[in-house]
Amino acid sequence: MPGLPDLLAEANRQLTICNACRYCEGYCAVFPALERRSILREGDLALLANLCHDCRACYQACMYTPPHEFGVNVPALLSQARLESYRRYAWPGAFAGLFNHPRWAAAGASLLVAALALVAVVVRAGVGGLVAVETGPGAFYRLIAYEVMVAVALILSAAALTVLVGGFYRLWREAGGSRRQLLDMHLWAGALSDAAKLRYLKGGGGGCYYPDPVRPAQARLAHHHVLLAGFALAFAATATAAFEQDVLGLMPPYPILSAPVLLGIAGGLFVMAGAGGLLARKRREPAAARELAGPGVRSLDVAFLVLVESVAVTGMLLLVLRATPAMGPLLVAHLGAVGGLFLTAPYSKFVHAVHRFAALLRDRAEAAEAP
Amino acid sequence: MIGGGNAALCAALAAADRGARVQVLEKTSPEWRGGNSKYTRNIRLVGQSYSEEEFLADLVNVTGEGIDRDLATLVIERSGGVSRWMESHGVRWQPPFRGTLQLARTNRFFLGGGKALLNTYYDRAERAGVEVRYHAEVVSLQLADRRFRSAIVDLPEGRCEVSAPAVVVASGGFESNLEWLGRYWGEAVDNYIIRGTSANDGRLLADLLSAGALQRGNPRGFHAVACDARSPRYEGGIVTRVDSLPFGIVVNRDGRRFGDEGQDLWPKRYASWGGLIAQQPYQLAFSVFDSQVLGRFIPPLFPALEAVSIEGLAAEMKVDPGALATTVREFNLAVQRDLPYDFSRLDGRGTRGLQPAKSNWALPIEHPPFFAYPMRPGITFTYLAVGVDRHAHVLDRSGRPLENVFAAGEVMAGNILLNGYVGGVGLTIGTVFGRIAGEEAAAYARAA
User: Is B152 helix (H, G, I), strand (E, B) or coil?
Assistant: First the structure.
């Protein structure tokens, strides 16, 4: 795996060629942002890397890709730089190594949380309680104490959020962003619109050349947004459940025809479809294209998608089988997957959301600064 | 279809649209296919802001009055429908780039440039049933009774004969053939850089001419721009061109100026420096400028030579320091400093009493550090052509058409581009004549 100095040198070499050519200007924000610079430093590279969607339109269009002696491969370069930016802005720095072992990190964190959940169940309900049939209000909390579940959830999400915000801020600053611009609501509105529309994943209109290197398509964009909608629905389900429980005093599990469960079902199905679709695209990818983005990129994506998929699958199974003896083991598995997702969020592909948004915001700010 | 660039693919698509069975014989590999077209990015088309009359005037302005007005007018008239045809074959557009304002009104830019354009055409062609054979080099055409019978083709598995009711020759010029260029230019060709494909050896052009095709265009003519002397011999493409010329002075290896860096006409200026540099000792020249113009032009692939003094820069350039210092001093003294500088227009701020003059945008070179790009002639394509008629038929020496032999692209562009070139017109000729050749060949094949 190349170190940052090597990556920077290679980025300056390749992107000098791009800057002299500019044929790809219409594909996405990377090339106009590149043209605003003559020398790339760490923050510049992180910005460009996180503006890149790895749609590969520029790679297909480039007459300087191998076997040409110029050897230009912007998606690979920026994919490696993106991975490097994930590591660079991770905190604490000691955990940055988790990006190199994404499958182990996801599996380890999930197993750890599942083990803790198992201990909590056994402590509260005994070994027999694990497979007992529990129904009616508060069934889950007869296995794990309400206070324990809420405390762990709050601590994990607060920790993840803090680390992610810290990474966002350091990327923002190193890419040249000012503190004052962070308060500019016009920039936020513009960047949110770019993110919501996946403006630059459209590759200038044709779509994404990944995984099909010949015919661009919009399917990756669709799967991405189905997954994102799934996240949003799951979040809404959690929020309404918290409201019913802590404001209205209604204890879960909730009936099927209730806001938390309906939202949760929709969220689960969307996440399964979105993450499943993205995973299926990876599997369909021709062997030659698989390593195009370079080492480490694919496994980071796959580990994250599999973890998200397991959260959704265990959640849906829990819903279906909650009145059976499988409820206990499924609750443990579901909490393990959810906990693993939160625990590894700042050290997994999840940071993509934060870094991409920081890059889109910075790009909006630069475009506004430009004469 | 012989060739695999824009003209050949337009012909293939047009013929397939008419129901013909089409085979494309491309000499190179899937990675290198596309001839010079893969290095293009824009096409000159008439439109709302660019009339047919203005297009013709621009063309006559660079080629001279010897132009074949009938064919030129045909290309210009048909260019009006090219946008829609390209879109219907999957092409997308992008806004003109920064730094190309001169072309925005007269040209359209296809998304991703020439290789993306060709990728789209190849995909559409294959979907339409066109068979593309790579590593298929056509050696010669077998003609009898003024008609094409078959082509002798070298394939990886050996030489074979391919027969067809009609053939379209779209195999480009001979600019990659240094031996052929050397017949006109001698040892100077050792210092030429071929900006585009290394595959255009002109084999089929020579074959057609020796088989009795009418010769058109100028055998010694080529389109050349100033390109970085450190560029690869072939296939360097757009990134090798040097854009800094009007921002400073241009000197040869003797440290002397030899042209007007502030010449008025944009397309001409762009194209004329290649030829001027080709006439200098060792075919070498330098674009010299100072720090006040940094950032005003698109930086090329290689870094500029740099020094804090003119003498130091001369040492980097391996030019006599005294000669360069004298040239710069004389230039600086001649600049009409009392006139305002404005690069956005012909500002008339030239030199006074200097030979040759710089007629616009003269800024004294006096703000260190100083910079220089070494430059050589960058040959883009040649103007020698087989004669064609309005139906893209290749003509014989008596001017009669060969009934089933058609030509499109650089192999016939010299009918129109006798001595000069305006940006984007090569693709216009290739697209218009590609379509005509494809349609006519399909019609002939159906009737046969």
Answer: strand
Segment 203-222 of chain A within 8 Å of chain B by CB:
204-206, 214-215
Q: Which amino acid is at B406?
A: F
Q: What's the gap between Cα A90 and its chain centre?
A: 14
Specify whether the backbone of A255 is left (phi greater than 0), alpha (psi in -120 to 50) or beta. Answer: beta
Interchain contact, B298 vs A19, CB within 8 Å = yes
Flag whether pLDDT at B268 surpasses 60.
no
What is the nearest CA distance from B99 to chain A, expressed in angstroms? 10
Q: Which of A18, A23, A74 to mutate to test the interface with B (most CBs of B within 10 A)?
A: A23
- Residues present in chain B in total: 448
Domain segments of chain B as ranges? 6-182+197-220+383-447, 224-377
Q: Which residues of A touch B295 (CB under 8 A)?
A: 38
Average pLDDT over residues B3-14: 98
Report whether A42 contacts A50 (CB < 8 A). no
Domain boundaries, chain A: 4-88, 95-369
Q: Are A103 and A344 in contact (CB under 8 A)?
A: no
Q: Inform me whether the C-beta atom of residue B333 falls under 8 Å from chain A C-beta atoms.
A: no
Residue A60: HSE in the Cβ half-sphere, 13 Å Cα cutoff: 27
Which residues of chain B neighbour A63 with C-beta distances below 8 Å?
38-39, 113-115, 235, 237
A278-294: pLDDT as tens digits: 999 888 888 877 777 87
Cβ distance of A23 and B298 shorter than 8 Å = no
d(CA B411, CA B409): 5
Average pLDDT of every residue of chain B: 94
What confidence category does residue A210 fall into, taking pLDDT thresholds of 50, 70 and 90?
A: confident
DSSP code for B194: E
Residue B110 near residue B86, CB atoms below 8 Å:
yes
The pLDDT score that the predictor gives to residue A141 is 87
Q: Spell out the SS3 assignment of B211-232.
A: CCECEECCCCCEEEEEEECCCC
Q: Which residue of B33, B230, B301, B427 to mutate against A (max A Cβ within 10 Å)?
A: B301
Is residue B372 helix, strand or coil? strand
pLDDT > 90 in chain B, percent:
85
By Cβ distance, the residue of B31, B113, B300 closest to A23 is B113
Please name which of B223, B254, B240, B245 lies closest in space to residue B293, comparing C-alpha atoms.
B245
Structure tokens that stand for A235 in this block: 């979040």
Class of domain B6-182+197-220+383-447 as given by CATH: alpha beta
pLDDT grade, residue A1 (50/70/90)?
low
Query: Is pLDDT above 90 for A135?
Result: no
CB atoms under 10 Å from CB of A65, counted, come to 19
Kindly tell me the burial class for residue B110, based on how many C-beta atoms sit within 10 Å of its own C-beta (0-12, 13-18, 19 or more). buried
Q: What is the CATH architecture assignment of B224-377?
A: Alpha-Beta Complex (3.90)
Confidence of residue B425 (pLDDT cuts 50, 70, 90): very high
DSSP string, A104-143: HHHHHHHHHHHHHHHHHHHHHHHHHHTTS---STTTGGGT
Residue with tokens 């030899």: B258
